Structure formats: structure tokens, C-alpha cells
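task queued by scheduler; priority normal; single chain, no ligands, no partner chains; default sampling; output format set to C-alpha cells
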Amino acid sequence: MTRYRNLSLFLLLAAVWGSAFMAIKAGLGTPTAPGGFFHTPVLFAAIRYDVAGVVMLAYAVVVVDDPLPRGRDQWLTVAVGAVLLIAAYHALLFIGETDPAVTSAAAAVIVSLSPVLTTGFARAFLPGESLTAAGVAGTLLGLVGVAVLSNPDPGNLLGGGVVAKLLVFGAAAAFALGSVLTRRIDSDLDIEPMEAWSMLLGALIMHVAGYARGERLAEITWTPEALAALAYLSLAASALGFLVYFDLLDRLGPVEINLVSYVAPVFAALAGWLFLAETPTVATVVGFALIFGGFLLLKRDAIRAEVSRLGATRAD
């Protein structure tokens, strides 16, 4: 029964996080069919985490004894999370998705490179972490996947969505680096208040960045579609999504939960097709296959150990 519960929650998380790319796209729109937040992508991300941060902080107050960070290391963890995991990741992702060439599926596939990049950053910043020859090959294979997905035109390297896809790649890199640095700091702050305070501080940073970009509340068109996208991203993808993630992290461990990054693009493509009439390209499919292949090379030992553990558990 527990196995089916974990599988159901895993698929729910993949569906919620995958369809979030579609919700971002729906709220932003395109240059020819702008959505309510098309002219304010960073402000869109900031408001999302205003709401999600308040919800997550309320949850942290309930489940942990002390939801307030204490001391230098705990606040440093929050700062890294706010700057890299929330502000940089979402600002770059939301700006990138304003380009019509960056479909919901394409954005999800590029972001699925995060676990591969995390391994590379861990080699640089975490003592005791090392990359084997297969690990180097896995990292390079993942980067080739992004290059294939970007499908650059040698005669027009700044066109065809390449810059936008590089922004999304930058978002994935920021998230991966933030994940590694929070591990390096290794504070004893519970993950729920860490996420809550990172969301709130990250939202504040994005409000400032959006204002610096010239984004203003008056530019938002509060259509039903824009409100629905904001509500879905704040409550379903952020609040509910992270609660499910925390539960599965305890039950499955980091190797299995990492696989959600490779199931989410399937739901992103499906949601984009159903709601936005997006059709995945061959480059998107091939890029995804290469990135997933890179992940398998990098994590082959951990996956082998996990499969052995599951086999032993079932035998018992």
C-alpha cells in the first residue's frame, strides 16, 4: 500500500511541477498574443512567491518548533536560497518563457538538466565529491542535449529563441549552484522554514529587480487567465508541490526524487498541448533523451544501489 501511495504522490508532483511550465506560459503569453503578465515577467514571479512564501511560512510555524532562522549559517542558507533557488532561477525562467520558441516542454527539458549541473558544481564546491570519466561524459552529454534543444542557427545565433533558451539554462544553473551551496553551508535549519524565508526574501529581491527593469503593477492585465495562472503557480505548484516534495524526500531519498525532473517534461508537454496547442519538436525530444542519458551516466552507481535496495526490500 505504501508503494502505491509513494507512486501516486510522485506522479502528482511530476504533474504539478510539469504543468507549472504551461501555467507560466499561459500567464505570460507571447508577443503576438500577450498574456496578463507579458510585460512584467519578473513581477509575475515575485507575486507568485509573495503568496507561496506566506503559505509555506504558515506551514513551517505549525510543523517545526522554531521557524525563525538563528545565527549566521542559517541566515546564510536562507540568503543563498533566496538569491539562487528563488530569485535568479525564477526571474531567468519567466523572462525566457516570454519567447514563443520556448514552449512549456522545452523549458521543462532544459530545467531537467539541473541534477546533472548539480553534480558538476558539487565537484567544484564540496570536498570529497569527484567525477569519474563516466561522470564527465554524463555532464557533457547533458550539455549537448541543451545545445540540440536550442537548435542554433549559425547564421543568426541571437535569433530563433537561442537567447531565451540560454536564459532558461542560466535558471537551471542557478538552481543547481544554489542546491550545492546550501549543502556546503550545512546549517541545521529545518527545510520548511528555509524554503519559506527563501521564498519571501527571494520575492522581495524579484520585486526590486522587476522595478529596476521598469516593470510596474499598472502594466499587469488582471484577466481570468492571468489570475488562474497565478493561483495555480502559487498554491498548487509551489505550496502543495513543495509539501509533497518534502514528504517524498523522506520516503524515497534524493536519488529517486531526482527522477521527478525527468517525468515533469512529459506532463509539461501534455499540458502545453492540451491548453496552449503547443507541439513538441524533434529537437525537444532528442535533447531530453540526451539529458536523461547524461543523468543515468552520472547517477549509475546510486541508481544501481537503489535498485538493489528495493529488490532486497521486496524479497523481505
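post-processing summary
- Residues 154-158 have pLDDT under 50 and may be disordered.
- The first helix runs from residue 2 to 28.
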